[in-house]
Design a protein that fits this description.
Chain lengths: 267, 267, 267, 267
């Protein structure tokens, strides 16, 4: 291919559009890519599902999708909240746009010691690191979802023995202006559950988690409230959305709850 | 069970909560249920994924999840936009709440005649019928997603022969205050694609759809703009969100575009 | 379209193939269709994911995909094991093949009364009804998956109080030569769990299911063995595969177990 | 925890079972773990979904699930076919079993240069590396799935212009006794498609892939046959299963085909 070839091929996307309808978002999604993510004291390798999009003015026919790829391949530092602002600015400059979003969803791994035996195993957490830009304002959100155990207070209270419990997904999507370690966000969440979960548990550990959950019964409503209180107390978090979903062990459906909170409206 | 039993068991959910944090949404999801849906001139049987949630004031410990089930089992008319207002009012009354949402997602079936042979087959479309209430205001949205063919204008223009094409999902989420037939919303969408898709196509039909798509090349941006113009012209639609996703045949990722538009802000 | 048009269009699929490689299965999948399914004393409407495939001899270039659709649209009785033999024979005749498979996967609904309050709600179960043909022999399998509660015997035994429990999927894929009601297959499965699950449970019911599960602790190994024993005792079942998957409440992964058993090899 | 505590806790799993029903497979699944995978000239980081299972004799009540974790955490070389034999032997020894399976599913990444512009981008392929043991015999399978473009020969032949095309998934599950590079298995597959796919394509590349696909029309049957012939010619592959699925651009369902072939039965 020579420069001449490029000139010869018509650039349909750049032609004028007469429908005059702005497009809020146009981009690519479902891109799977190996990425490096900032961790406490270093970084870790993982795999992300990636989405890039920009806004398109009413008089432009199309965007240039291949530029998103150049942007993605060019990222040269571990993913973290603060560097997302730079990636967003690069994207808006490259695609000559004033709005857009960027989204990386990936599993994040933490080596955890079992509560009694101390045996180590690797736990996985789902993280979504995203940036949204509109009219020049860039907002970065770090969402961490931790699997936990929840144990029903009502079931415990009314039953002669036992209490139904189940795996729950408990998450915080935090609006941040500084880096906030994923490990710290995981800890904030896990401490609000009936009990955290682990990969490997020996019998002594199983005894501990069973009794610990029984001593800490929580409704799905309690989960989101307790996490919300921790988020309010954490200065790095400017606004947040807490979500809990209980995969009920006595039903074939989930119970869920959501709290959204913006500290800037409460100060 | 007697009344006495009920009195004996403590009602933990109804106790007072001192954290004083309102919960925006608490409810159930992942409920799978057989439902009847309003269709042109009648109704059809299908299966829905159902979600119900309400808001909970800061001083209430928990909601009463079983009441959502009573509500669901009590629905006695085919699902449609207008009746959703009634279901919402019943839910808010039953759970003594001022906000919440209701969501039914289901496949909807339309018998279509192939374009040339006229042979009939059943096409499936995904529909999400939802209602959202906040501070007494209820908004009902009917989202219809149609699979269609999109053919790339750039690929057609620059190539000696052929043009890459692929299956796309094209959807309209329409804010409605009256019933609007799903069949009509499907037609509005399909007419904006490079070509609709069918279940059964004979060779004469395949010739037609191949040539028809080639004669109607559309970028993902064209798909959302053309549908948006049709929505603007349709008086029943008060506001809308149009989304297109192309499962690109030359990539392992999707191209997508979104237009949101509220007529009440443009009049 | 006239007969003449059909003659004019070349039939590429019917041409000879010189690679001489037989194809074990060729067909369509991902077809979503409304279906009627036989139930105890009648039938019910549901929605199925459908797959049809045949074998293709080494000298034939392609199969005729549209004939699968004609077959699907022509089914005129409720789905059940015995009628699947007829559908298979029709498919093999229509596509001039000696082997193939047919698969319908659908949710099946049963109205259940809660164990103490007697309040009714609709439970959903996943069913896969399939037929496989090779060299003229047709085997029909009915797989039913029921969500249940499992409670860990080890956790109960070693802990001062409580015991971890969770939702499990417990299934039987039964080879049948007669119709066997899905409701009966569900019951066979549910009776082997620590406790069945329900849609709607009042507090008196919740007390019951909590205590009932605590009194019936089962490992994932116990679940498959207890179901297997029931299947061995059930004369209608000729061979079976039992699977259990526990969505562990103390881990972020599942425990699972499988037993396969063919009575014809044990008699 | 002291040794004494361990002795005190009863080991329920090790107790005798009187139902005398062997369990073919019992283990863990849904484990997400960071792994290192062998690549051409080195190794790469990725994330795997992991499954481990063993067979359990009829007189043993349960297996020891935590040992699977010890095994997983102890793997100290990049994943590849030959080392899987060692992992299997370790598992059977650790769990005192004679049968079982191991399964790693992960995305694998290859940097590809676009066909004309030469611009580089990272493509992702799905790989399943698995081992199965029964009665002491261990079989290792490496399955690679590549997304490709398929273009319909019938549509091309009967239409005045254009031809419907779509993304397809084309895979080979190869039984191997030596290491066989994933990159080589990808290449074998991609060369049999109407055209490979890339992440980033400039306009000159788009012209190439459009024309190249048009010049190489293939039915789903052609895809599996052409790949099968390549597998027969490749000495490293002892037996194989080839699968193709076309996400038809003119339908809302897939066409698919499967060839299974064991060279040891054809020699």
């Amino acid at each position: 291919m020579t420069k001449k070839d490029l000139v010869v091929l018509p650039d349909v996307q750049s032609s004028e559009d007469r429908r005059n309808l702005p497009i809020q978002r146009v981009g690519i999604k479902g891109v799977e890519a190996p990425v490096l993510v900032k961790s406490l004291g270093g970084s870790q390798h993982t795999v992300a599902d990636v989405e890039f999009a920009v806004s398109l003015p009413g008089d432009k026919k199309g965007t240039h999708m291949s530029r998103f790829w150049t942007l993605l391949e060019g990222i040269d530092e571990p993913l973290a909240p603060v560097m997302m602002v730079g990636v967003m600015k690069d994207m808006l400059a490259s695609l000559r746009s004033t709005g857009g979003h960027i989204r990386f969803e990936f599993p994040f791994f933490i080596e955890k010691a079992a509560p009694i035996s101390g045996m180590k195993s690797t736990m996985n957490y789902k993280v979504v690191l995203s940036a949204e830009a509109d009219d020049g304002k860039i907002v970065v959100t770090q969402k961490v979802t931790a699997p936990v155990t929840s144990l029903c207070p009502c079931s415990k209270e009314i039953s002669k023995y036992g209490a139904h419990n189940q795996r729950s997904k408990l998450s915080v999507a935090a609006v941040l202006e500084t880096n906030f370690p994923i490990e710290k966000q995981v800890k904030l969440i896990e401490e609000c559950a009936s009990c955290p979960v682990w990969g490997l548990l020996k019998r002594t550990d199983e005894k501990y988690v069973t009794e610990h959950a029984y001593e800490n019964p929580k409704f799905v409503e309690d989960l989101v409230r307790d996490v919300a209180i921790r988020c309010i107390d954490e200065p790095a978090i400017l606004a947040f959305k807490v979500e809990a979903e209980n995969f009920e062990s006595i039903h074939n459906h989930s119970a869920f709850a959501i709290i959204t909170y913006d500290k800037r409206e409460h100060s």
